[in-house]
């Protein structure tokens, strides 16, 4: 027979082989050395002459030798245990107790007793006892059994199972047992519900006594001496009543008063709740559960009383004897200390000991494997077909950590390589680093192999295919692994009959996938993290699209992220100063009635603020009322103070903050009676208790407007004949004459005077409201009938000429809305318009709607929508043209044709649709120009307000200048970046200070690293920060916006469902480009709920040049946040709502927030983020079950892989025949070789 080398992993296997040895075969036993160099066995002759299996060395055993000998590594992986043959603690209770007690006794003897005290102790007997129970491994007991020395007792804690509190027989699934020696013998008490000190005793009495007696006999000591040995490591401080000590991550023992129940065991559920085994009716609210929860949070007192680092309660039992690891840790600690003393190195300067670190591949990998990986996979398949083919993997030349070369001998080990179709056997060479003790193995990158350990490896091609399937097809890892096993089970006997090794388990495969994804993410090239289609020459982006994905992991897996920020205080009410109407309720009321016809509008008033806003909007349209022949504004300063504070009144100018230019524009151009009637109907539909608070004269005016059903067709544009309108239009275009029918003196409803006031009857005043002189009384006799309106108004129908009277202007200005009257449907729209133009302003139904959209945007939205990137050139051009002395139709046509004016479709549409009227009279042009000037002046008012706004806490602010934009005009010196970074965590800065320090100076990654004390070239750890954006490094401090959203700051107006944290985290938040095939520029894993502040935070922190436009589904709220918290960003960056959400749920903001209102957004894919997130939603069934690190790794890989697919689609043409993996390999992986 041909001799062969056989490797044996245990002494028993070697003895069995020796008993069967014949003359033809020779068994060689290779020496196995553990980490400390202790010999386990030398050769077959020594073992044969040994009287027992425990006599393993040629010299007498040293008492200080390790209790459990550990070989330096098994040469090959074992067959694994049979399914269902795991350790059952109830069936093997006596053996488990022997392991725990013998290990605890041996550790205490080795660590806490002097050598001369061990003369009469049989340490060899304790080792023999442990070797007899070697099948009960350390790994099996590590999280299931402990001794109670850390709780101050001699005893054990046994965890039978994790399926709840009790089994089907009502027994506790975790029991703490304490034993003591009394004059009557050994007494045992446990945490079960039984009465241990009563009749019958404890159910654990018999097994505990047997275990103690056997350990006593093995050590050769008396029972009293054994209790002294076992009690030497007790922590007496933990015997205090109520003291909680953690054992593992989900088990806690709480000390009780005494008697039969000395301890209560508490378990942690999957939802992170602590449940007590002892308290049946209050298992979640008892004191034991509260003590366990406090201990888990680090609030237990014994957490700060640990000694020497080996007595830590939060270590999960790692330092206790009961975890089955033996005193190897303590021996290593002494050896490590001796090594430190011999080397003379300080603790800070020594290299860490990586002897126990699992060796694995460390170098980054490509997203698509190279050709070498494909060739290696083919070799593995050949090895599966022919077992005589052996795969060899030479060790790395240098240590990957210390970068030192090999000084020790190489070791030959067997490695199993899996490629999906099967498992091939190979040989790997390893060596120990003499500096850090790391086991150096080959990395495998040059051959397309990923090593997860020194004995397990995977084909990179197989891991690539598996990862792509997980990311693109929505299958879970468990289902994919199951199908992998199923396919191999069907075909292996026919395709690879000689390949008998089993495939790796799901756990092993999961580790390999996570390792592979981590290496791929580390090797992602810069081309994958940016979009070549959207990036500008300076590296910035014009448009960025953001969206949140409500797909998170369980809250119990959440670990706090490391994100430093600079706190910034808000500027209260800054957003209202950015509008021409500073009262938000008034703006909402007027904007709401302008968004629909009067007959379709249904609004319910529920608050006094809303009532005040609607009443002031009514007064804005109709004018002030007259009381006793005098105009009464009902302003807050004119109302009497009847012993109570009454700050606000009902004047839209003084109390509502409406600019007079807007009032003049509305009353000059429009018939406001319909809109006023719509507001009156809304007001009268409010609750009676709110109506009683409105001054009586105002209620009378509202009632009169609601009851007025007179025909106003002669006042509305569209009621005049087409011939007259055409003549007026042509005359105005050529001669500048006044428009026919334009009655400057005609009031809105025909009943008002020239000043716009409404005459009311004195009899309307009662004792329930403000009387004629403004006195405030209590209304008691008023009923609901007093506030009801009559039957609904039905507008009369009229004929409409189908000819297009404004075709000349349509051709001149390129405005299709003026070219078609709309026929019968256009006539209906004109009759239904809630704010129609006056008869002297020729229009069509389409042009009137465009003008109405412009008016609503002026009323509702801030000034920033008219000045994208703070550029007022379009408004200034129209303003200068309207007030020019040489005004003409051609001049106005040239102005609206400019690119900056054409960019603002709302502004251009209003100018062109009003062109027939603007060209008719200089007074009309003056009124419109004053409105445009009003927008510019609103910007100036906003700048003055934010510059003079006091900080939220003046005492906590550093000095700063008063410039809101930070244009450098202030005389005060700015705060340095380093000073702001090193400020106290509670230090709050103003927006102006942050702007001067971070936004205005040039932003670079080097400056950021220097300010934060980071080394040059610092790479962000996305697992610790939760942010992956390699193409956008950190360049500014994260603006930490202080304070929750409120009505005075940035509470949103529109309603939008944001991601919330419930049982899972809020999900992720991503930034994408807007081309046809969008790429992910960065993804943020949320540690809280999604917020409208996140787009601003992301672009400020990472974009050196701020983008021109941000697309976000809640952009209206994000704009409000920017106005309140970072005015510089609000003016420099335009925020728009994506098309999908704009049509869906945005009702309180105007069309100025729609991307279709801007020419530059025509080619932008505003739903790019929705497209990318739709793919991620396929993975929700397994992403929701991942831990935080795995969730981040998988999410980042998915985005990087989708970027590769998008890059391929950008470059693919009709002639492209290869798929995206091969394209990527040729382009970015093996491009140098081809």
From TrEMBL:
Stretches the record annotates as Disordered? 66-85, 298-365, 729-756, 1160-1180
Renumbered to this chain, the Acidic residues biased-composition regions fall at 304-315
Q: What is the lineage of its organism?
A: Eukaryota, Rhodophyta, Bangiophyceae, Bangiales, Bangiaceae
Q: Which organism is it from?
A: Porphyra umbilicalis
State what protein this is by name.
HMG domain-containing protein
Q: Give start-end positions of Gly residues composition bias.
A: 316-325
Report which superkingdom the organism of origin falls in: Eukaryota
